[in-house]
């Protein structure tokens, strides 16, 4: 496989697409809805996700975290497939492209979107780099929840509607929990090598046994949130019903996660990302049919 494709980590990209899909489709029935805004917001989110992946590859190599003992998929910098400076430059290029696309969104959405854009870029750089890397201090899952959950869903809805809604906050929380689960799989797989390298991820801090318990909460709670939203009259019934189909996948993932460790968790990383996409796609499909 092309090393640049490896560096972009395609299996993680649903983490960026899913929340933007829900946020935009939630606003589809509004007169103010714009396909140009929808496409631009998705492109911006994808560029930021790729930038985060490149930054993680570069900074983890630079900080001595990625070594030959690594259990996860190939890291292009550590393995020598790509020069570290090229990976760093590609990260910067993706951030600049995201800023260019984001400028259109800022022009449309005003100062609230400007603040979110600045925070997102700082989050992308600060996830693995900077003086206080979030991922190395047990905040990776929190960052995933905030940026690829709340910010992505509520922000994309705000761009279309000029306001927020309780439904957007509920759905942002739900998708954010699923994206945090993706991060947790990665960190639980690397728990021993990260601890050895001094990287204090959440999984390292709470241990493998508690990480497995937390994973179950992260993949089940989103369904509880949307059911609660329906019972409170905040979410329509058809999207909630359709999304229930993804609960079968969540149940299987939860069971498999409790039974394997180390490198055997690699397939679950991509499968958890697919759960995020399935959840988002099914709910969005249900929304389309309720318009």
UniProtKB/TrEMBL annotation:
The chain crosses the membrane at residues 35-55, 90-107, 142-160, 166-186, 218-248, 268-289. Its EC number is 2.5.1.74. The keyword Membrane applies. It is found in: Cell membrane; Membrane. Keywords: Cell inner membrane, Cell membrane, Membrane, Menaquinone biosynthesis, Transferase, Transmembrane, Transmembrane helix. One of its GO terms (biological process) is vitamin K biosynthetic process. CDD domains: PT_UbiA_UBIAD1. InterPro entries: MenA, UbiA_prenyltransferase, UbiA_sf, UBIAD1. Pathway: Quinol/quinone metabolism; menaquinone biosynthesis; menaquinol from 1,4-dihydroxy-2-naphthoate: step 1/2. It catalyses: an all-trans-polyprenyl diphosphate + 1,4-dihydroxy-2-naphthoate + H(+) = a 2-demethylmenaquinol + CO2 + diphosphate. One of its GO terms (molecular function) is 1,4-dihydroxy-2-naphthoate polyprenyltransferase activity. The keyword rRNA processing does not apply. Pfam families: UbiA (PF01040). It is a multi-pass membrane protein. One of its GO terms (cellular component) is plasma membrane. Its main location: membrane. Belongs to the MenA family. Type 1 subfamily. Conversion of 1,4-dihydroxy-2-naphthoate (DHNA) to demethylmenaquinone (DMK). NCBIfam families: menA, PRK06080.1-3. This is 1,4-dihydroxy-2-naphthoate octaprenyltransferase. It comes from Shewanella algae.
